[in-house]
Design a protein that fits this description.
Low-confidence stretches: 150-159
Structural class: alpha+beta
Distance between the termini: 40 Å
CATH topology: Immunoglobulin-like
Largest sheet: 5 strands, antiparallel
Strand order of the largest sheet: 6-3-2-1-9
Number of domains: 1
Order of helices and strands: HHEHEEEEEHEEE
Shape: elongated
CATH architecture: Sandwich
Oligomer: single chain
Number of helices: 4
Amino acid sequence: MRTPTTALAFALALSTLPAHAKDPALGTTTFTVYEAFLSPAQEPGEESEVPKPLEKSLGATAPSTPRENRKSRGHGQLRFARDLSKAYVEVEIQGVNPADIVMFHIHCGPPGVLGPIIVDFGEAGSPARKFTDGRFSVELTNKNVVFVKDMPGLKPSLPEGCPSELGLPGQVKTLSGLEYLARKGVLYFNLHTKAHTYYGEMRGQLYPARD
């Protein structure tokens, strides 16, 4: 058993050892990874339940299918570079015709709750064209984080871009803020199709990836 004097001397010896900072380049080559398994079961409602004021603007243009009868499935990863300068999205879907995709987003909201859009994968054109053989891949920077004043159709209106803390007026504007929300488990993928435009075809809540 060490005496108090010996323990103190050992601690002092450790404190004098030189610190070893990590290679800064690791900030862009190592990642914090979150993943989601997408399914219709995670959608909080059916297309038949679309609020009346939104039926014309966001209503489906094809016959809908109840959640339990849909065959659509997917898996997605959201990888943040450790220096939070970039992030990468990789998604694979099954049971969906890419030509039927009308919108694809990352939203902010807890499970079972419709939340505002925080990343819009269709800003530069139709998201359907970005799927090749059911696979989608894109790089994100701060400019891809959406900031819109209001979420249409909801009263009281909620801020787009997702508050960093519930009840606070500040909104997330950076990838570092996006990663913070991912750690809290309040980000989800939502894929919208012609038949399921409002709630979405399938949804996947993002959680820390497991090996």
